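Entry 14. Ran structure prediction on the chain below.
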Amino acid sequence: MTDSAIQLGQTSQPSISKPNARPRGDKRADMVIEARQRRLYRHQLEGLTARQLVYEHAARESVSISTAWRDWKVINAWNEEDWARDRENMLSRLQQMRSKLFHQALKKGQLQTAAQVLDSLGRVIGEAAPEQIAVSAPNLQIQIESKDS
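Output, structure tokens:
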């Protein structure tokens, strides 16, 4: 062998790799997957259990059960994000709904409902019933010892 021999182990082309290859082999675009997840997000308001939602989602979207459970995990993360975002505004929204409910109940003559709503509003602002104040008041016990001891 001479020094001018071509070495055969190396190629001049670098290896080609796919940077966006999906580990689960799903070839669909992210927009299609997100649209499927958004449909599941809308269906969660139907009042079904998580298992029922996942099974119906798998049948409706023609995906496997494991894919439907992965979609459900994404939906749970979205719910947590929504709750964290809306938590600060929730008290004012609840108060507004209570106020609207009170006025509607009075308009329709539903006095028991109106009284319950007023009681709920009072508890929020710290108003307590006299019975609750009496229960929470401290008790004073005085014991007198005899002089003999």
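The longest helix spans residues 65-108. Will compare against last week's run tomorrow.
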